[in-house]
Design brief:
single chain; 398 residues; alpha/beta; Enolase-like, domain 1; TIM Barrel; 2 domains; 8-stranded mixed sheet; 4-stranded antiparallel sheet; globular; binds the ligand O=C(O)[C@H](O)[C@H](O)[C@@H](O)CO; binds magnesium ion; RHMD-like; L-rhamnonate dehydratase activity; Enolase_C-like; metal-binding; magnesium
Length: 398
């Protein structure tokens, strides 16, 4: 079996979106004076830099007609250009079973500029598509090729609860407690730029959500890199009484020493990794005890080939892996690793941040049932296909 063609297309969402709201989620650009994101929306839209309203879909086809699907959401148009110009020539004509060789080829050929960020994300999409091919060729789900089923079903946590009116947040949490979720991730709306008033607002939001979900359910707290070390050190001790399962990405991804300091500071475990790349990036986080939960995303770190190695590495450090974002490429790895206790789950909503866009592109993504996800033992590959009924909402860049 040989790889015959590679097609990368950008799916740009043109359908309806939920309008942006102020202080919806802290993020890295919040610390920059008069940031571009704010100017775009007359001072309100602090989320401009992290919307995922376009996505690159990669189809890798073999000479015997098997098509594997992969995808990448980081800088999708640049990822497409990288795939078309740099990766396709390295992969065409190769046997997909040589996935380790192909992965190394892509990683090393682009190493001068590609080792972190969009270069790795582009590699990831191709690698994921190759694993989809392998599953289809072997007539097995990908998780069976990675070691098989380690759980009857995958527990998942509800991931939305952006900062809005506190009553609205409570109603949202209540609705999904009733749907059987036992773990919830909420977002902070405020950071260092908002002073002590913002600290009070942040604490009030945690209290409001805890009031609804109680202490028999897990609560995760997301900063999306919108704080700095000094601010995080001030607020962390005040958050302890709410017993969060973890506090996520308090500072920018490059401040590894900051993570390490915060991870030792209180009883609250610090999580991160959705903006880290490659086996070496994670070894650095683990060696420094910077995170207590690793949250790689398979479509960023270098694909399933690389994520499988990161799983093994984290297992040896006894640090659990709970990948970022859900999606099939992550679920198959979580199903096949005992060190992955649960999955993140984006509920299916109207398009807002864009976290939910993959549901509009692919058919086959599992829906949570009573707080659990299931993968089918009899569906080969990743179990995804491209939806045609939503195409009118997309512009496709070939
Ligand atoms: O952990 C997450 O789910 C991410 O940080 C989200 O993708 C991001 O959009 C913030 O909501
Ligand atoms: Mg996150």
């Amino acid at each position: 079996m040989k790889i015959k063609s590679i097609r990368a297309r950008v799916y740009q969402w043109k359908g309806p979106t939920v309008p942006p709201q102020a202080n919806f989620c802290s993020n890295a650009i919040d610390l920059v004076y008069d940031n571009q994101a704010n100017r775009h929306a007359g001072g309100n839209d602090t989320m401009n830099t992290f919307r995922f309203h376009e996505w690159t879909v990669v189809e890798v086809e073999t000479d015997d007609g098997i098509v594997g699907l992969g995808n990448v959401a980081l800088a999708p148009r640049i990822a497409k250009a990288i795939i078309d110009q740099y990766l396709a020539p390295l992969v065409l004509g190769q046997d997909p079973w040589d996935y380790e060789y192909i992965n190394q080829r892509m990683y090393r050929a682009t190493h001068a500029w590609g080792r972190k960020g969009v270069g790795m994300a582009a590699i990831s999409a191709v690698d994921i598509a190759i694993w989809d091919i392998l599953g289809k060729a072997a007539n097995k789900p990908v998780f069976k090729l990675l070691g098989g089923r380690t759980k009857e079903k995958i527990p998942c946590y509800y991931s939305k609860l952006y900062r809005t009116d506190l009553k609205e947040m409570q109603a949202e949490a209540e609705k999904f407690v009733k749907q059987g979720f036992r773990a919830f991730k909420m977002r902070f709306g405020y950071g260092p730029a908002h002073g002590q008033q913002g600290v009070t607002e942040n604490l009030k939001s945690v209290e409001a959500v805890r009031e609804v979900i109680g202490y028999d359910n897990d609560l995760m707290l997301e900063c999306y890199m919108g704080w700095n070390l000094e601010y995080a050190k001030r607020i962390l001790p005040k958050l302890e009484k709410y017993q969060p399962r973890w506090l996520e990405e308090p500072v920018i991804a490059d401040d590894i020493d900051g993570y390490a300091e915060l991870n030792q500071l209180t009883s609250i475990p610090i999580s991160g990794g959705e903006h880290e790349f490659s086996l070496y990036g994670f070894k650095q986080l683990l060696d420094k005890k910077a995170v207590s939960v690793v949250q790689y995303d398979t479509n960023r770190v270098g694909g399933i080939t690389m994520a499988h190695k990161i799983n093994a590495l984290c297992e040896a450090y006894s640090v659990p892996v709970i990948p970022h974002a859900g999606q099939m490429h992550n679920y198959h790895l979580t199903m096949s690793s005992l060190n992955c206790p649960m999955s993140e789950y984006f509920p299916i909503f109207d398009v807002e941040v864009g976290n939910e866009l993959f549901y509009y592109i692919f058919a086959g993504e599992p829906e949570a049932d009573n707080g659990f996800l299931q993968l089918d033992d009899n569906t080969p590959g990743l179990g995804l296909s491209l939806r045609t009924d939503q195409l009118h909402n997309f512009e496709i860049i070939e």
